[in-house]
Amino acid sequence: MEKLVSSWFNNKTLPQSYIFPPETRPGNHVIPRCNTIPVVDLSKALAYERTAVVQQILEASHEFGFFQVINHGVSENLVNDTMNVFKEFFELPAEDKAGIYSEDLKRPCRLYTSSPNFNSEKVHLWRDSLRHPCHPLKECIKIWPPKPTRYREIVAAYSIEAKKLGLRILELLSEGLGLGSGFFGNKLSESTVLSLNHYPPCPDPSLTLGVSKHCDPNLLTILLQGDVYGLQVLKDGEWIGVEPLHNAFVVNIGHQLEIISNNKLKSAEHRAVTNSKVARTTAAFFISPSDDCIIEPAKSLIGTDESPVYRAFEFKEFLLNYIYMEGNFEKSVEPFKLHG
Ligand code: OGA
Ligand code: NI
What we know:
Bound molecules: N-oxalylglycine, nickel (II) ion
Number of helices: 9
Low-confidence stretches: none
CATH class: Mainly Beta
GO molecular function, one term: dioxygenase activity
InterPro entries: DIOX_N, IPNS-like_FE2OG_OXY, IPNS-like_sf, Oxoglu/Fe-dep_dioxygenase_dom, Plant_2OG-oxidoreductases
Mean pLDDT: 95
CATH topology: Jelly Rolls
Structural class: alpha+beta
Distance between the termini: 50 Å
Number of domains: 1
Domain Fe2OG dioxygenase: 189-289
Shape: globular
Organism: Gossypium tomentosum
Order of helices and strands: HEHEHHEEHHEEEEEEHEEEEHH
CATH superfamily: B-lactam Antibiotic, Isopenicillin N Synthase, Chain
Helix content: 25-40%
Largest sheet: 8 strands, mixed
Strand order of the largest sheet: 1-2-10-7-12-5-4-3
């Protein structure tokens, strides 16, 4: 517990063990926070503009690997309650969090700090994290934090809505790719996990990171980033900031969607920077295939003029390699690429 950034950071200078090497630290560059990451109005997908929305999502996923959605159908009250209960969790007194803190990677619901490799990593991340599965909900909910008292009730409702939203977006993507209806609505999207990030105010944001550069290893991520800036996406070798928008979700393409689409959709590298003024709390809802699900480029995309870029594999094989490669993009996908 004493390792959590939130338990010791007050009035301290940044410890050496949190200082990134010059080539990976954010530095003092001003990163453009312009609205280049596309914003998609999902309400239009219900009406005659559906084709245009499909096209917009497809292009955003191809070009950036990221987009934001507004008018997404998840109630604003539920989103506010959820964000509040996430913040309340991190603000609980130490004794209420002690039972959930664990360094045992096998614990399905756990509070930890930095990354799963705290004891072996060279530099620590300026964040605390709570992670737990959401499927099957009836069983998972029993292992979620018992406090704050409304955590289980609110987060259960939220996880149902986040999954629905994810499936809606996957359906639009599948339409755009020509994969037909329901393509992703099975084992490919069966597993769901919530990963909360809490980044306390940091004494020197130029030297450290909240999350270092990575791609999400799953299918699709629905991120609730709240109203504090910190997310950056790598596009053509430059970092661009993702502006926090009121009542929006950030959506990004995971490695598996890149593979299934045979590189038509892009899984973009991203990171989170810290700030010196306010704490930032975010919640990533990861939609993933089940462990034994077979992943391969969709058969209908492969034809005379297109050959598969990847071989078929079990999702758990990918995860094992991903963890081992500690988020290195090339090394994460290399063993699954077909050459020739
Ligand atoms: C993640 C992630 C970004 C953020 O949890 O995978 O990229 O802004 N988080 O918290
Ligand atoms: Ni991520």
